[in-house]
Amino acid sequence: MKSVKMDKKSHNSRSNENCSCLIEDLLENAKTDDHLCKVGPNDIEVFIDPDPEKTSYNFYIRRMTDGLPIIPPTRDRVLKFMEYTDRNPDDLLAVLPPRQGKAIIEKIAINSVMAGCLPQFMPIVQHSIEALSIEKFNLTSVNATTHPVAVCTILNGSVSREIGASSGDGCLGPGNLANATIGRAVRLCLINIAGAVPGIGDHATMGSPAKYSYAFAESEFESPWDSMHCERGFDPLTSTTTVMAVEAPHNVNDHRSKHAEELLETISHTLSTPGSNNSHVPGEVLVIMSPEHARTISRDGWDKQDVKNYLHENSLVSVELGDRGGRKLDKKWIVDGNIRITRSPNDVVLVIAGGDGRHTMIAHGFGTSSESVTLPILFKDGTPVQSVHDFKE
Amino acid sequence: MKVKVVEKDVLNPLAEIMMVKEELNPIPYDFESVSLLDNTKPGANVILELLEKNLGKRKFVRVKKPAGSPATIKQLEIAANSEIVILALGDCGSCFSWIILDAIRLEKMGRSTISICSDRFLNFAHELAKSHGAEDLNILSIKHPVAGHSKEEIEEKTLQILPSLRYLLQIP
């Protein structure tokens, strides 16, 4: 990619402060080596893109990447992202721990460029960063912990469909541009704005593949129930982003259950895992249910709340196995010699996604130390963004 | 005609830091009361119990707070009833973070604090305190690891930090 720096002003406006050489003049009138103006030693400056390999390496050795190659964040690329926000480049959205980095719009755009996002993804990344800065998300601990908790971004509403975010086959990856790069942009913002650099501000003992990217959309039209954002009080037409601190997902393969209860029994057994944070400090869990599994449950007349109730009541571990976590088990969590994985049915965050197949994925959360946050995608005046094209109007 | 090929600049992805400066409270020359703020990490109670036994005849108040999460306002208020608060234990990422941040909250409430973190996380604890404007926060390091060890082993490690603690507290 090349671009030639040109100014549309006439010769008369030339000055040392503002070179205005026109390429036509240079080509037609330059008979000697003399320059057309006194500004610089060159008649033309041809600007070329930085070498991605070199830029990636330079950023990598400064600990500013996730280890994968990046798109060089040139000013013109970043400016394209600014077309999809109504904020100013230096507007401060949040201060992110542990480094107490200022999350201004321009820095979010720079990291989104690096991640490979399209400019149209900017509203999603911007609001996701805002969401994870909200107190109950506890980004301080999510970033610093030795636990392999990652930030999962879940998209609902028309904007997610418009940008092509996947809610179907393979939505957890690989293969979808929006899912792959939005999740990556969030991670790069955490590294470069928050300072969650592995071994420095991110102390995960082993990390997690989920920390590279972890984003998907809900398959709202395949769900027999209300989608997650409606459940949380948003209008179906409102687009939202939800950030949730969870482990990498674990599969629940159930091809044989024909009824709600036996299928949910399988899922609750997968959720009943000692060694998760939930097993000693109960909290949220993410349940990503395939449309096939959801229909099996729904056709027995079970609604979403029934599912959440069942999983809350039946997902548990023994006290003996549960009380081995980092925090002393609080006796208030003990019910008949067991600990429930969740504090209440509301801790079961149920999302319908995925393609054909009889699988559900579950992901344990960060215990009581973090709660998911859903934010609507809004203009700064509070109007919902119905389409990314709204920014152009 | 001279043509110069210029590689475009790349923009810096690193954020600027929000600079703040917190006023820390000096350790009082003499003191009657100490709050022991236990984040319930394995071994935190062992450390605090042994320290209590070695800090002379004073009023000690035990307070529990969650590891990896901020203390509640009520927990902080109870802890702040004493002249000095000793916080333990920061031996993992999220727990040292909230030991340090809760210590800063207590300092803002006018209390002197001493935080105990394991040596593997000591530098990070200082960095975190610095980025929150509390560069000179009192942090003592205990040998890592603490979790997964017997009471006797933890007590042995605790005895090693006693001279530093007594020095900080100006106890002969």
Keywords:
heterodimer, A: 393 residues, alpha+beta, four-stranded mixed β-sheet, 15 strands, globular, disordered N terminus, B: 172 residues, alpha/beta, Rossmann fold, five-stranded parallel β-sheet, elongated
Q: How would you portray this structure in words?
A:
In chain A, 29% of the residues lie in helices and 17% in strands. With 393 residues, chain A is α+β, with helices and mostly antiparallel strands. Chain A has three domains: 48 residues, no CATH class; 196 residues, no CATH class; 116 residues, no CATH class. Chain A has a four-stranded mixed sheet. Chain A has a four-stranded mixed sheet with strand order 8-14-9-13. The longest helix of chain A is centred in the middle third of the chain and has 18 residues. The radius of gyration of chain A is 25 Å and the shape is globular. Chain B has 172 residues and is an alpha/beta fold. Chain B has one domain: P-loop containing nucleotide triphosphate hydrolases (Rossmann fold, 3-Layer(aba) Sandwich). Chain B has a five-stranded parallel sheet with strand order 3-2-4-5-6, with helices on both faces. Chain B starts with a strand and ends with a helix. At the A-B interface, β2, α3, β4, α4 and α6 of A face β1, α3 and α4 of B.
> Looking at this structure, what is the CATH superfamily of chain B?
P-loop containing nucleotide triphosphate hydrolases
Question: Judging by the overall fold, what is the CATH architecture of chain B?
Answer: 3-Layer(aba) Sandwich
Alpha-carbon Rg of chain B, integer: 20 Å
Q: Count every helix of chain B, treating DSSP H or I runs of 4 or more residues as helices.
A: 5
Q: What is the SS-derived class of chain A?
A: alpha+beta
* Helix/strand order of chain B: EEHEHEHEHEH
Q: List SSEs of chain A in N-to-C order.
A: EHEHHEEHHHEHHEHEEHEHHEHEEEEE
